[in-house]
Amino acid sequence: CSLKCPFCHNQALRDIKAPAGVFLYDIETFLKTHQKRLDGIVLSGGEPLVQADTAAFAAWIKSFGYQVGLHTSGVQPERLKAILPFLDWVGLDVKAPWRKYARLSGREGVVERVKQSLALLADSGVSFEVRTTCDPRYLSVSDIYELAADLKPYAVQTYVLQHYRTFDGDRNPPTSTQIETFFQDTELSRFLKETFLQFLVR
After folding, report:
1. For the chain, how long is the longest CA-to-CA vector?
2. What single string gives the DSSP state of each residue in 127-153?
3. Is pLDDT at 14 greater than 70 in this prediction?
4. pLDDT digits (tens, 9 = 90+) for 76-114
5. How far apart are CA 110 and CA 116, in angstroms?
6. Which residue has the higher pLDDT, 16 or 123?
7. Which residues pair with 70 in a beta bridge?
């Protein structure tokens, strides 16, 4: 992943330049032997779109009759555009209100790319959700109100608030009480249910 989100728990994932632990033949065998048991495959990461051939890989999976989903941060809009024809669903992680995006993504200038991805999804006809992980060290309840307003121009229908989950090596992790602040706020919940066609909590 090209981002450096301060709350990320995936930083120990394998470098994409490292030798693969699974070969294409193994994946093909898996896809063929599970055709009657599985409906779809989700491409995830890190950020799967940092790899240039992700669209071709999605098309290949689709050729076996599977639905294909994608988890993405939206910072690769050109590659998102290329893969959209092969997708049935997208989960887009939106980290923060636009004004806080550089801090929460660890990168300057990516917010415009996320906006481009949102516009692509809104026009694509592909089912998608936007979700935000609520780490109280970096986000507040008022930030979620602001983020909802930022999303309004993109006709987002499904919005998800996700509990932050602590992990080994987490520095000064928030308490469960702090994390639950977002989810016990009845006014926020009511507002989000009124703002989006579907509001979910994970």
Report:
1. 52
2. EEEEEEEE-TTT--HHHHHHHHHHHGG
3. no
4. 999 999 999 999 999 999 999 999 999 999 899 999 999
5. 10
6. 123
7. 43, 90
CA dihedral for 36, 82, 105, 138, sign (positive or negative)? negative
Q: Which two tokens stand for residue 137?
A: 């060290």
Q: Which two tokens stand for residue 35?
A: 């055709």
Name the strand (E) or helix (H) holding 93.
strand 89-93
The average pLDDT across 55-60 equals: 97
Q: Is 160 helix (H, G, I), strand (E, B) or coil?
A: strand
Structure-block tokens of residue 114: 């996320």
Task: Please compute, for residue 65, the number of CA atoms within 13 A of its CA located in the half-sphere on the CB side.
Answer: 9
Residue the block writes with tokens 């990516």: 110
Burial class (CB in 10 A: 0-12, 13-18, 19+), 116: middle
Q: Are the CB atoms for 118 and 161 separated by under 8 Å?
A: no
The structure tokens listed for 62 are 């689709």
The string of pLDDT tens digits covering residues 135-148 is 999 999 999 999 99
CA distance 46 to 44: 7
Q: Taking the CA of residue 73 as centre, how many other CA atoms within 13 Å lie in the half-sphere pointing to its CB?
A: 25
What's the pLDDT at 154? 95
What span, in angstroms and rounded, lies between the C-alpha atoms of 100 and 78? 23
